């Protein structure tokens, strides 16, 4: 079984000034994350600006990431969307070399019913060569996958192994933890409440903030896993303002600004996203310089 305990990071996709994928910077990022002590990497989650990447760019990024990670940590591919048949086709043809699981976001824009969400993931589970991690993020998709649907999927399909939950709905988290089967895990998809979710039984996080501060965030998460919540809370408190700033003008503009300041990669994003404002960049820089 894939061990998803700890800190996974939804890696950004670095671009150069011409708007092309910056592969040397991507290698820098990979090494920055692994050297920072994170437990696994998600390649091309939604933080990776997948909506603006071509099919060929995605293939190139997945291959490059697998080669540079070289088995040092587990690797998860983000493959999701709102065209069920197309996503199923992508999963069936995906080159799994170097990859351990797939993170698949709940369908966005269509606003399917709970039965539609269930049937979507049922289809994907039947076409994926790898275990699937569900991803519920209502703020981006426009629909919430209810706890009953999550539990139904977890019970019906053994290759659906976890959910990245970003609904910020603690009642929903309670229901998942109470009713989930033993093989199924709850993972935080919301950096600011990772500590709180782990106190309820979540096994870790798939983080955005971890791109910039992998050591601090992964240390906090490991303390939570060890039951040392008082020590973890000190790190959590120190990250509150930094986390707020990273999301103040959208994701991944904020975290790319931080990565630029840290010398990991440039802060270019693809339209319709724009770079963080100079004011926000200065605020992020002030906090990084204090640490």
TrEMBL record:
Its main location: cytoplasm. It catalyses: L-aspartate 4-semialdehyde + pyruvate = (2S,4S)-4-hydroxy-2,3,4,5-tetrahydrodipicolinate + H2O + H(+). It comes from the Bacteria. Pathway: Amino-acid biosynthesis; L-lysine biosynthesis via DAP pathway; (S)-tetrahydrodipicolinate from L-aspartate: step 3/4. Keywords: Amino-acid biosynthesis, Cytoplasm, Diaminopimelate biosynthesis, Lyase, Lysine biosynthesis, Schiff base. The active site is at 135 (proton donor/acceptor), 164 (schiff-base intermediate with substrate). GO terms for molecular function: 4-hydroxy-tetrahydrodipicolinate synthase activity. The keyword Amino-acid biosynthesis applies. The record marks 46, 109 as: Part of a proton relay during catalysis. Homotetramer; dimer of dimers. This is 4-hydroxy-tetrahydrodipicolinate synthase. It comes from Pedobacter flavus.
């Amino acid at each position: 079984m894939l061990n998803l305990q700890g800190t996974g990071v939804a890696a950004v996709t670095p671009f150069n000034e011409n708007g092309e994928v910056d592969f040397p910077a991507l290698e820098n990022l990979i090494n920055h994350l692994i050297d920072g002590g994170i437990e696994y990497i998600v390649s091309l989650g939604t933080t990776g600006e997948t909506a603006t990447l071509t099919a060929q760019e995605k293939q190139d990024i997945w291959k490059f990431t697998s080669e540079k990670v070289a088995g040092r940590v587990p690797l998860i591919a983000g493959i999701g969307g709102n065209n069920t048949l197309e996503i199923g086709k992508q999963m069936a043809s995906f080159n799994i070399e170097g990859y351990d699981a797939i993170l698949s976001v709940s369908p966005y824009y269509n606003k399917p019913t709970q039965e539609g969400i269930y049937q979507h993931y049922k289809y994907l589970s039947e076409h994926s060569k790898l275990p699937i991690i569900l991803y519920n993020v209502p703020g981006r998709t426009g629909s919430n996958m209810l706890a009953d649907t999550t539990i139904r999927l977890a019970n019906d399909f053994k290759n659906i192994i976890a959910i990245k939950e970003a609904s910020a709905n603690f009642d929903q988290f309670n229901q998942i933890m109470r009713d989930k089967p033993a093989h199924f895990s709850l993972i935080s998809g919301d950096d600011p409440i990772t500590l709180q979710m782990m106190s309820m039984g979540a096994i870790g996080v798939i983080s955005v903030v971890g791109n910039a501060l992998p050591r601090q965030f992964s240390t906090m998460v490991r303390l939570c896993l060890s039951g040392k919540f008082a020590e973890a809370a000190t790190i959590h408190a120190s990250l509150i303002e930094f986390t707020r700033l990273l999301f103040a003008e959208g994701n991944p503009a904020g975290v790319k600004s931080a990565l630029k300041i840290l010398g990991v990669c440039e802060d270019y994003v693809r339209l319709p996203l724009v770079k963080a404002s100079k004011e926000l960049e200065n605020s992020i820089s002030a906090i990084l310089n204090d640490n």
